Amino acid sequence: MLAPCDRPGYTVYCNRLMSLQQRVATPDRIWGGHTTEIPTLHLLEECPMNVFLQTRHIQISLTASQKAEEDFMTEIQDLNNWDRQVIEEFRAKGGNVGGQLANAPLLLLTTTGAKSGEPRTRPLVYLSEGGRIYIFAGNRGASTNPGWYHNLVAYPDVLVELGAEKFEARAIVVDSAEGERLGSIQLQKIPALASLQAKITRKVPVVLLERKK
């Protein structure tokens, strides 16, 4: 991991596996995917590795993996911001939202973080079938299950907001055959989900939200 130094205007990246010559001080702004030459930087403060650095004309190039990680974190932040806006609108309008999710069957699911133990809320499209409520761990077409799914596997007790109603429920992962049947019904009701379904190569878990009595 790369550890930052707290000197204003600079970040010192100290990789514990690097030699002293490889440790560098760089301006906070680095252009991803490009190599930039940096003039002499006299760093008089110590970084977390207790290393004092004086360097001239250091060339720093973000690797492809670093750039990909930056892009991934930006995407995650954008999705979190989008979810937050949907949640605020949902609660302000009694379950009604506009934009891409207008007229979609939408609920808010609050789980307990598997690692943090903190409440986590996500807006999810659901399926109402046979008087029961189901959600799908499609994760927007990603190759891995979403965080909320891992949370409810660890802590099955969840909170559901449906319209203006709020109730406690027990999350139960349905078996594979039943999940496929429910997935087919959901695609019939919302054909637009087919484009996401086509991206997924894994089995998408389906979860029953059983209202507590």
Walk me through the topology:
Elements (H helix, E strand, L loop, with lengths): L9 E4 L10 E4 L7 E4 L2 E3 L9 E3 L2 E4 L2 H29 L13 E7 L6 E11 L2 E5 L10 H8 L2 E6 L2 E9 L2 H14 L4 H4 L8 E6 L2
CATH architecture descriptor of the largest domain: Roll
What name goes with the CATH superfamily of the largest domain?
Electron Transport, Fmn-binding Protein, Chain A
Instruction: Enter the CATH topology name of the largest domain.
Output: Pnp Oxidase, Chain A
The level-1 CATH class of the largest domain: Mainly Beta
By DSSP, the count of extended strands is: 12
Determine the number of helices (DSSP H or I, runs of at least 4 residues).
4
Low-confidence parts? 1-62
Structural account:
This protein is globular. It is built from 4 helices and 12 strands. The chain folds into 2 domains: 10-62, no CATH class; 69-211, Pnp Oxidase, Chain A (Roll), CATH 2.30.110.10. It has 213 residues and is of the alpha+beta class.
